[in-house]
Q: What sequence folds into this?
């Protein structure tokens, strides 16, 4: 079982879903807070779901408020960076770049990819935490 | 690594985390807890000012730069105008040199890029002369 957990975790790093910041997060887990990493991940996915919903609503309006979109994405990138969500962070960076140059199509395309990476990470981390129990 | 983390509990240091991001709040709170530093968390610069107006004081403030209502630069200036002499470390994601300069000139004692880690936090504490025994 331990080996399975280790393999799942290694694949998350090998496939680029997580970076070394996730290890920093694990370093904070101790006997006093044995589920700290899972708790932070849960908080991240709850918060990022809210941000995704806000961004979707903003995009559906049709008129692109790039400032507002960039603000949402700044938040999203910050959280993603803090937990080591590498691929999601990369998409956030690209989205912000498209906001900066006012490229609506780029924003839409990147947002679609971001949601995909986010959903995949969520599923894989859920598997990891389940296997760790 | 976990066994090598020093504890500053005996020093009775206190800190304030100022950040609008829930994940970062949780992380920074835990980082400080891990080092034995009692800490409070507020969500923006205005709350940081308000908590000081209520009479609270802290040895260290970890101040995010981009926040709603009152950002880190404005909050740092306001706190210094109020005579708050706490050590303030600006903590933000990669800022350009201009932003960093403006933040430092607002009254920071130190600056560190996010995401914070134990080693980055220890580095802040060392540079700000908080005695850290290993």
A:
């Amino acid at each position: 079982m331990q080996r399975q957990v280790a393999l799942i975790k290694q694949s998350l790093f090998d496939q680029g879903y997580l970076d070394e910041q996730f290890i920093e997060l694990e370093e904070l887990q101790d006997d006093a807070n044995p589920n700290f990493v899972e708790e932070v991940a849960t908080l991240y996915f709850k918060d990022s779901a809210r941000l995704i919903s806000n961004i979707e609503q903003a995009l559906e309006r049709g008129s692109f408020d790039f400032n507002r979109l960039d603000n949402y994405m700044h938040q999203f990138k910050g959280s993603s960076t803090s937990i080591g969500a590498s691929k999601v962070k990369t998409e956030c960076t690209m989205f912000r770049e498209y906001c900066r140059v006012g490229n609506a199509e780029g924003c839409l395309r990147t947002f679609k990819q971001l949601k995909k990476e986010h959903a995949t990470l969520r599923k894989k981390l859920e598997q990891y935490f389940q296997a760790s129990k | 690594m976990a066994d090598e983390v020093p504890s500053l509990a005996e020093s009775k240091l206190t800190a304030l985390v100022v950040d609008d991001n829930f994940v970062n709040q949780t992380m920074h709170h835990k980082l400080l807890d891990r080092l034995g530093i009692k800490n409070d968390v507020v969500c923006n610069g205005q709350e940081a000012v308000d908590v000081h107006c209520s009479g609270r004081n802290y040895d260290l403030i970890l101040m995010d730069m981009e926040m709603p209502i009152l950002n880190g630069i404005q909050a740092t200036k306001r706190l210094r105008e109020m005579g708050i002499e706490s050590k303030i470390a600006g903590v933000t994601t990669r800022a350009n040199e201009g932003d960093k300069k403006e933040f430092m000139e607002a009254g920071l004692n130190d600056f560190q890029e996010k995401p914070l880690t134990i080693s980055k936090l220890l580095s802040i504490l060392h540079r700000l002369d908080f005695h850290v025994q290993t």
Observations:
- Chain B has one domain: 12-125.
- The first strand of chain B starts at residue 14 and ends at 18.
